[in-house]
Amino acid sequence: xxxxxxxxxxxxxxxKLEREVNLKQLQINSLLAITxxxxxxxSADGLYNMxxxxxxxxxxxxxxxxxxxxxxxxxxxxxxxxxEELLKHDINLELPKFRTxxxxxxxxxxxxxxxxLVIPVMHKEEPIAYAFIGGFMxxxxxxxxxxxxxxxxxVIAVAIENKRLFKTQLRQExxxxxxxxAAEIQRTLVPSRLPESNNLQLSSIYKPHxxxxxxxxxxxxxxxxxxxxxxxxxxxxxxxxxxLMANFQANLRALVTRCQxxxxxxxxxxxxxHRVTQGDRFITLFLARxxxxxxxxxxxxxxxxxxMLISNGDVTRxxxxxxxxxxxxxxxxLEIGGVCLTDESLLFSYTDGLTDVLNDAxxxxxxxxxxxxxxxxxxxxxxxxxxxxxxxxxxxxxxQPFPDDITVLTCKICx
Length: 415
Known about the structure:
single chain; alpha+beta; Beta-Lactamase; Phosphatase 2c, domain 1; 2 domains; six-stranded mixed beta sheet; five-stranded antiparallel beta sheet; 41% helix
């Protein structure tokens, strides 16, 4: 009967080969179906359903759970043969332990111990998905099944990750367009042209840290020869600061043309800012009014970095004023400052982003370095001085980025 036994062994091998061929054909068909679905841009939910169906009906997997990251947490997107209550267990602390495919029979986690194997899908050494499978029988071709599940899991995971990245890119492009539009609008809020005469020169520097920023300056020229100008710094950066700056600009413009005194402007601005921010944000402001005929300057410094007035080699800090705007519903004190500018003078106002600039050694530009620069170049016209200042700061910072918005308003009073 040896011949009969050999025939049986041959038939068994043929049957095994047929099953392997059928499984391979099934795998190929499944991969083709998934690839077609991906090309047709089937939704992520549709791909999860296909994955579930293939593993259940085509591969015969009895237990499965597929996890993807969602809003910073790992969530089960589809499962097989697992009690819904078990899926409610938090698995986020456990998943980082799995970096390669491995058996998990000895896990103490109530959900994980339901499975036999975990298959992490990695991208640039970071996990993008985890598949847990289990419920294998002793007579199954576990190796081939696991190989196919690994392949199909990687295909599905990469496709869904690409969908996520594409959506993120689209959202970012929309956001970029909105920020560009906001930047264009913000540029219209600062003066495109500054007044100039034989006795007065004005020049500005305006460099938002991002596309939009929270710094602001303005100049208003009146028919009687009076000039009102200001520089302000809104707490924070980016779009939120820019929105508050736009609101501030609209209010200030209206008040400067309507109110008779600087005190009235500042009191009303403080109330307006507090109504909007409820004390959560505040604004520093230097506001001045210069009478060209009488050469008198009156100002209020509302918590802003004190501008420098340089005349005859002397430096005066313009500090008189009040606390920052918007911090309290009513200002506890206010003191107006005044000075008569009979000699040639340089009035240099700026936001603290200028002196916060660092170099490669970690040193800041500092008020001392700025004062030294201004004393050396005070004889220059306002536009040239600002240009040289920018060159000087660029050289000082070496390879370091600008840490904040930078705004400068330089006023040169000539005789």
